[in-house]
Amino acid sequence: MPIEVVEFTDDHLQAAAALVAARYGVEIEQEPLLSRRYQHTAETLPFLRRLRSRGPGVAALEDGRLVGFIQGSVSMFKGVQTAYVPDSGHGTDTQNSRNVYRDMYAQLAARWVASGCFVHNISIMAHHRQAMDAFHTLGFGMINIDAIRDFSPGPDSPDGVEIRRAGLRDLDAVVSLETKLGRHLASSAAFLPMLPDPGRRRSVEEQLSNSDEPTWVARYEGATVGFVAIESTGRGPVLARSDDGIMSLVGAFVEPETRSLGVGRALLNIALEWGRSAEYGVCVVDFESANIEGTRFWLGAGFRPVIYSLSRRLDDRIAWATE
Ligand SMILES: CC(C)(COP(=O)(O)OP(=O)(O)OC[C@H]1O[C@@H](n2cnc3c(N)ncnc32)[C@H](O)[C@@H]1OP(=O)(O)O)[C@@H](O)C(=O)NCCC(=O)NCCS
Questions:
Q1: Sign of the dihedral through C-alpha 322, 70, 102, 139
Q2: Which ligand 1 atom sits nearest the alpha carbon of residue 286?
Q3: Separation of 210 CA from ligand 1 center, angstroms?
């Protein structure tokens, strides 16, 4: 029976949510730190319902049965019209996942492009090889990794490094370090544009005043040389990061002259110690996969990938150059 790709409708919601839950169940076998709740259709369904109103979707049917779907959202992201499919927005149930994903993308991408959307992003659970393969072969490349770890302690702080909780007295130092982190991400190989942010100082001020979501600074030879900041993760579009009890690391930087001394590990250790005592269940971090230092550091410090996000940026001349 050939597989037919049709527009996604509300009638497909329940079966689609079941595909997401089934995939999630497979991922938990590989990564036991993932929350157990999203193995259940009742928990994945609300994520899909929210996505439904935010852009077109497609369903693959075999003999009337849903064997695949992709449902994304289309919105302005950093000033660019972007289609985004979270891990809760796609799934398959067929031996031939790779080809079904490719067929579904072909139909959906035509809709996105027709509406002037040339940047296509998708988040894929880390062990979903067929999906990764399908999107890589469609011209997608990796941009971001979400990774997870428990709160087991790392090595002790090296001599001469003092870590302390940051307060408003550290405002200038943390603004400066955050700005340097932005510059680092704007440089090779991540090349993430550092857009003007007139609210940066104000947001650091709020961050430092928030006792539930601390920032720590590292002092070495009389100077502030690094920081790490955390947030409590609420519900986002990505299942792997949507649960109570998830502590997110949202920024870390160590001055280049004091790197590889163990300052980063000492900062991470304090954050983990705090998370453990605040009874968080897991710690997550996300980073640009082209951030050489960041990738090496987090994966070296015991974080395991749970989500890979891939991106495809089309040549927008395709809007007119077709014959
Ligand atoms: C990521 C970053 C914070 C790490 O800080 P750091 O202080 O250099 O980290 P550490 O010194 O604790 O660890 C770095 C490496 O040195 C090694 N190291 C630590 N102490 C050491 C010692 N005494 N002797 C030898 N090596 C040591 C660590 O094992 C680690 O090795 P790895 O990279 O192979 O895993 C820093 O590189 C940085 O600011 N990078 C730019 C900003 C950035 O990418 N931030 C992350 C955003 S997502």
A1: positive
A2: 48
A3: 27
Dump pLDDT digits (tens) for 122-157: 999 999 999 999 999 999 999 999 999 999 988 778
The alpha carbon torsion through 287, 80, 182, 173 (nearest 10 deg) reads: -110
pTM of the model: 0.96
Strand-pairing partners, residue 252, are: 228
Nearest CA owner, ligand 1 atom 16: 260
136 touches 128 (CB < 8 A): no
Tokens describing residue 159: 């001599």
- Find out whether the beta carbon of 283 lies less than 6 Å from any atom of ligand 1: no
Contact of 102 with 137, CB cutoff 8 Å: yes
Separation CA 227–CA 245 (nearest Å): 23
Summarised one tens digit per residue, pLDDT across range 18-45 is 999 999 999 999 999 999 999 999 999 9
Domains in the chain, please, with CATH? 3-139 (3.40.630.30), 149-307 (3.40.630.30)
> 254 CB under 6 A from ligand 1?
yes
Alpha carbon of 168 to ligand 1 centroid (Å): 26
